[in-house]
Specification:
- This protein is α+β, with helices and mostly antiparallel strands.
- The protein folds into three domains: 7-102, no CATH class; 134-245, Butyryl-CoA Dehydrogenase, subunit A, domain 2 (Beta Barrel); 250-394, Up-down Bundle (Butyryl-CoA Dehydrogenase, subunit A, domain 3), CATH 1.20.140.10.
- 46% of the residues lie in helices and 14% in strands.
- Strands 1, 2, 3, 4, 5, 6, 7 and 8 form an eight-stranded mixed beta sheet that branches. Strands 9-10 form a two-stranded antiparallel ribbon.
- Strand 9 (285-286) and strand 10 (290-291) form a beta hairpin.
- The chain starts with 11 loop residues before the first helix and ends with a helix.
- Residues 136-139, 144-146, 169-171, 218, 225, 375, 378-382, 384-385, 388 line the site of flavin-adenine dinucleotide.
Length: 398
């Protein structure tokens, strides 16, 4: 039996899409990974990912959330979340490349709506077609939660800008052709009390003065992030995204949407962990040959895991439904990111506990999921930053 409390079953269209996606993830994509010996720790190359971008696009999954004029199906946030949950639950290494998360349209987020015709033609439509890829570069070593303290600076230079700075942990960096870089405008925020302004730029990663390097390896052991080092790198004026000074709004707008859309991925991973744990409790014999699941101490743990999952999923799909109705879900998105990341971590912690030494062994799926899920209490805004946002909204300090 597979654990399931899937709200999407009520909608036949979403259920059909999810079924089609699951067939692809468990069949063709699983075979592709097996044939190439791809694991979570593999150093993936663009050549590993491109065939998946192409095939996922052929099947209609890559960029499926986009409007029809961009080749998508304009699906609701709820439907996209159901697909993301299924990707999370499938446990595929390359799952991130199916809907366009790894350098594709989901990574670009809602920046499409800030793009000029030139930027659409040169950068974003090729990205939507899976021909080009991007990363998003906001974080620096000394500027994470407090992004406004960033040091990367943009100096106006004739018909363009010169960018200097060092961005870290740009996901999809190893596969990207260009980065969406947020930089402080030179001459702003330099004196006491003066507010800095920021702009967003599309930076070609093969530009002179731009270097992409490996950077640190996160605890998941994956090699999917890069450092982007800019040394007086020229960026033409037509690569300014939105207006000068709008960069932080563009960046944080993208982060808010992502905050909610990370939740179904986490729910999928927690669901997978619960499935694996239930399986383990049936097959693992202890205490005189009884299966683990017959022990009340274990039954209570799996009951708590399932209950947390149900709560996390319910609030997430409730917020998504409100988003689909056109409501402002900023506060709910903070709450969902906070609760889902914290509860997925608790679920994974119990999954490891119930797996015993197997759960502590490298190469075991639960061990990987534990490390992967742990990162989300920090990624896309830490749990503390979500609480700050909730409290600010409650206090009317928006
Ligand atoms: C695997 C991975 C992928 C990433 N991908 C990207 C990416 O694609 N693009 C990108 O730009 N960035 C990316 N990041 C960076 C990520 O978004 C930051 O790590 C995150 O925003 C937190 O910043 P920080 O790590 O510097 O923590 P810090 O800001 O140093 O925070 C440290 C601790 O202090 C707490 N804290 C900080 N400020 C406050 C406050 N005001 N109130 C209460 N508590 C506070 C935090 O909650 C945290 O517990 C990635 C990071 C990782 C590890």
């Amino acid at each position: 039996m597979t654990f399931s409390l899937r709200p999407t079953h009520h909608d036949p269209e979403i259920a059909a899409l999810v079924d089609r996606l699951r067939t692809y993830l468990d069949g063709e994509l699983a075979d592709y990974e097996r044939e190439r010996g791809i694991t979570h720790e593999s150093r993936l190359t663009r050549a590993d990912l491109e065939p998946i971008w192409e095939r996922s696009r052929e099947l209609g999954f890559y960029g499926i959330h986009l409007p029809e004029n961009y080749g998508g199906k304009n699906i609701s946030a709820t439907a996209l979340a159901a697909l993301k949950e299924e990707v999370g639950a499938a446990g595929r290494v390359l799952g991130h490349s199916v809907l366009g998360e790894m350098g594709g349209p989901l990574r670009a987020g809602d920046i499409l709506r800030h793009a000029t015709d030139y930027q659409l033609d040169k950068y974003l439509l090729p990205l939507v077609r899976g021909e080009r890829a991007c990363c998003f570069s906001l974080t620096e070593t000394d500027a994470g939660s407090d992004v406004r303290s960033m040091r990367t600076v943009a100096v106006r230079d004739g018909d363009g800008y010169r960018l200097t700075g060092h961005k870290v942990f740009s996901s999809a960096g190893p596969f990207a052709d260009f980065a969406i870089v947020i930089a402080r405008m030179a001459g702003t925020g330099e004196s006491e009390g003066e507010k800095p302004t920021f702009s967003a730029f599309l930076v070609d990663l093969d530009s002179p003065g731009c270097t992409v390097s490996d950077g640190a390896t996160p605890m998941s052991g994956e090699h999917i992030e890069s450092d982007i080092v800019l040394d007086d790198c020229h960026v033409p004026a037509e690569n300014l995204l939105g207006e000068e000074g709008m960069g932080m709004r563009i960046a944080l707008g993208r982060v808010t949407t992502n905050r909610l859309l990370h939740c179904p991925t986490l729910i999928g991973m927690a669901r997978r962990a619960l499935d694996l744990t239930l399986e383990r409790t049936r097959t693992r014999k202890v205490a005189g040959g009884r299966p683990l699941l017959e022990l009340q101490a274990i039954q209570h743990k799996v009951a708590d895991m399932a209950t947390e999952l149900y709560a996390a999923r319910s609030m997430t799909y409730d917020a998504l439904a409100a988003l689909d109705r056109g409501e402002d879900v900023r506060t709910e998105a903070f709450m969902c990111k906070l609760f889902v990341a914290e509860s997925a971590f608790r679920i994974l912690d119990e999954a490891v506990q119930i797996h015993g030494k197997e759960g502590l062994t490298q190469g075991n799926e639960v061990e990987f999921l534990f490390r992967k899920v742990r990162m989300f209490r920090v990624l896309t805004g830490t749990s503390e930053i979500q609480r700050n946002g909730i409290a600010r909204d409650l206090a009317g300090l928006r």
